[in-house]
Specification:
14 helices; Aspartate Aminotransferase, domain 2; about 10% strand; alpha/beta; 2 domains; Aspartate Aminotransferase, domain 1; binds pyridoxal-5'-phosphate; seven-stranded mixed sheet; 11 strands; about 500 residues; single chain; four-stranded antiparallel sheet
Length: about 500
């Protein structure tokens, strides 16, 4: 890689003691911005040459960098040299086509350009007045996305509801939990907070548990209801009914149900319609977490997974996961925006302005935890405009086809087993041990995970389902093609063969 030599600051002070620093010089930005884009483009060009999972040891960086910040300016060339030699080794390459861990976190040219523009404008859009375009574009783009997902009209900003971009699904569930908590407390009295109960399945993302901790929900009143393979790890309406009747009988107050479309471990889909009816008849807020699988639901053939969302009070999907929008961009819709606003608004003198006071505008500061907020709608707008829904649908469908291919590979190899029914682009599978022994099976799969990930060739992750250690292969990185899935399967087969050889040698020597 060719480097460029530039000094960003002055090397010597002016005689009057002032500084020559020009931190936002447009010509400097033009020149070095182009060069930075070249640097990043080269990174993407060479991304397959890096170990996908960083192989460094904890604390590796401290010994490589000075103990304090430089007093005098350094050159961009030196900084980028350090990025190559010191930072990249400690990067796990989420955008690598050989990345199959957790869930994807997509980047794209459109998303990147949107991020760049947002960094360029660099406004802080907490109230409408601070940049009317930021608020208004966010409302419009989330209405577009709501329509693409065929969400009911009462999630649109034209009625009582509307969408808002949160940083993450964790923030999304927290703000709606706070809205629901305050709504019920207004009805029953603040002193009854200790009686409020939250329901979800044991497959629900831990973000809900964290939200409950923050919201002051008594830890004993968080019901993470057991699921198993008989319902494909979906929450059973019957177990919800049972839990509700026990809690009501002891004077507790059910107020919040979180259903998931596409759980983190195995992409289970909770039955929204049945759960929604139960929630409604018990006066509970229903939140639907579709952080990962929401992206697939823009395709007509997968939209049925959202059937019943009309019963929900709030719905969330992460455009930054599998919808080509660079992190962070978590889209949240609510039917009743006043519930959010009542829980989260403040009105200090220093933020007062005519438009807000006259109630003419949305002030997104009242829909989120922090005050400050970025112009995140730009990147989602650019993704939607520069790709169009047809391409986005084809993109997601291609990953689902690739996952199906991988699932076929696993099913055709008698040494392996597909563990849970695949719905989207995640395959849960495991290597079968030579003898039917659960501890041995778990150890074998743990060893297989370590072996493939430390090879640097691919990166996959794991979960536990019904006590079984399970490997997760999630297709969804923007550069992944069929050849990468085929190569990944070969890596898994080769490492598995080596492990099975060793394990039968060990068994022989004990025989
Ligand atoms: N919900 C589900 C279903 C998830 O899979 C995840 C993360 O993978 C989350 C919530 C948390 O996402 P975030 O990192 O945006 O808070």
């Amino acid at each position: 890689m060719e480097y460029f030599h530039v000094n960003f600051g002055n090397d010597h002070k002016k005689e009057d003691g002032g500084s020559n620093l020009k931190p936002m010089d447009s010509e400097q930005l033009r020149e070095y911005g182009h060069k930075m884009v070249d640097f990043i483009a080269d990174y993407y060009k060479n991304i397959e040459s890096f170990p996908v999972l960083s192989q460094v040891q904890p604390g590796y960086l401290r010994g490589l960098l000075p103990e304090s910040a430089p007093t005098r300016p350094e050159t961009l060339q030196d900084v980028l040299q350090d990025v190559q030699t010191k930072i990249f080794p400690g990067v796990t390459h989420w955008q690598s086509p050989d990345y199959f861990a957790y869930f994807p976190s997509n980047s794209s040219v459109a998303g990147f350009l949107g991020e760049m523009l947002s960094a360029g404008i660099n406004m802080v859009g907490f109230s409408w007045i601070t940049s009317p375009a930021a608020t208004e574009l966010e409302m419009i783009v989330l209405d577009w996305l709501a329509k693409a997902l065929k969400l009911p009209d009462n999630f649109l900003s034209t009625g009582e509801g509307g969408g808002v971009i949160q940083g993450t699904a964790s923030e999304a569930v927290l703000v709606v939990l706070l809205a629901a908590r305050d709504k019920i407390l207004r009805a029953v009295g603040k002193e009854l907070i200790g009686k409020l109960v939250v329901y979800a399945s044991d497959q629900t993302h831990s973000a809900l548990q964290k939200a409950c901790q923050i919201a002051g929900i008594h830890p004993e009143n968080c019901r993470f209801l057991k699921t198993d393979s008989s319902t494909e790890y979906a929450l059973s309406p019957n177990s919800l009914r049972e839990a509700l009747s026990q809690d009501l009988a002891t004077g507790l107050i059910p107020f919040f149900l979180c259903a998931t479309v596409g759980t983190t471990s195995s992409t289970a889909v909770d039955p929204l319609l049945a759960l929604g009816h139960i929630a409604k008849s018990n006066g509970m807020w229903l939140h639907v977490d579709a952080a990962y699988a929401g992206s697939a639901c823009v395709c007509p053939e997968f939209r049925h997974y959202l059937d019943g969302v009309e019963e929900a009070d709030s719905f969330n999907m992460n455009a930054h996961k599998w919808f080509l929008t660079n992190f962070d961009c978590s889209a949240l819709w609510v039917k009743d925006r006043s519930a959010l606003i009542q829980a989260l608004s403040t009105n200090p003198e220093y933020l007062k302005n005519k438009a807000s006071q006259a109630n003419l505008v949305v002030d997104y500061k009242d829909w989120q935890i922090p005050l400050g907020r970025r112009f995140r709608s730009l990147k989602l707008w650019m993704v939607l405009r520069l790709y169009g829904l047809e391409n986005l649908q084809a993109y997601v469908k291609n990953h689902i086809e690739l996952a199906k291919r991988f699932e076929e590979f696993v099913s055709e190899d008698s040494r392996f087993e597909v563990v849970a029914h695949r719905k989207f682009s995640l395959v849960c599978f495991c290597l079968l041990p030579p003898q039917n022994d659960e501890d041995l099976a778990n150890k074998l799969n743990r060893d297989l995970l370590d072996a493939v990930n430390s090879s640097g060739k691919i990166f996959i992750s794991h979960t536990v389902l019904s006590g079984k250690y399970v490997l997760r292969f999630a297709v969804g990185a923007p550069l992944t093609e069929e050849r990468h899935v085929i190569a990944a399967w070969k890596v898994l087969q080769d490492e598995a063969a080596a492990l099975l050889r060793n394990s039968s040698k060990m068994t022989d020597s004990f025989a």
